[in-house]
Amino acid sequence: MTGSQETGRLFGRRTVVTAVGAAGIAAALTACGGSESDSPSGAAAEKPADGGAGGSGGGGGDAGAVLAKTSDIPEGGGKVFADQGLVVTQPTAGQFKAFSSKCTHQGCAVKDVANGMINCPCHGSMFDATDGSVKGGPAKAPLPAAAIKVEGDSITLA
Fold first, then answer.
1. Cβ proximity of 122 and 107 under 8 Å
2. Superfamily grouping for domain 43-157
3. Which residues of the chain fall short of a pLDDT of 70?
4. Is residue 157 within 8 Å of residue 49, measured between CB atoms?
5. How many whole angstroms separate alpha carbon 158 and alpha carbon 145?
6. Radius of gyration over alpha carbons of the chain, in Å?
7. For a designed S-S bond to 126, which of 63, 90, 136, 143 qualifies (C-beta 3.0 to 4.6 A apart)?
8. Where do the record's region annotations for Disordered lie (predicted)?
9. Could you tell me the strand order of the sheet in which 148-151 lies?
């Protein structure tokens, strides 16, 4: 092989190794929201409740669409609606709250609601199911409230 062929062959390997490494880093960043900030950035990955215009809404979906029955949301607990980017809680009997399901630490989706806390599985952040405030973990900003409407036994997107 000539010197230029060897250089081209090495350059080709380096390009492949660099591309594979960059793809791995991109995948890792995407899994955790891709941001080191403590604010809810990267909102393009999920539709906000206001129909996609950004803002503080949190979730997404069609306004007026039935999200759940009130009986689906346990008192003192809640339910995560991943497709809508929302978590709905019932802190006390008949009181329903909704928040973005996107953790404000690095954008991971919260996993569940237990013992009055909304829990993020990625880094252990915990949010109060009553008001979305931070109760533990690396998150510093509360979960943004989202608009829902309770009519009879139905919870709809507002």
1. no
2. Rieske [2Fe-2S] iron-sulphur domain (2.102.10.10)
3. 1-61
4. yes
5. 12
6. 21
7. 136
8. 35-69
9. 66-69, 154-157, 148-151
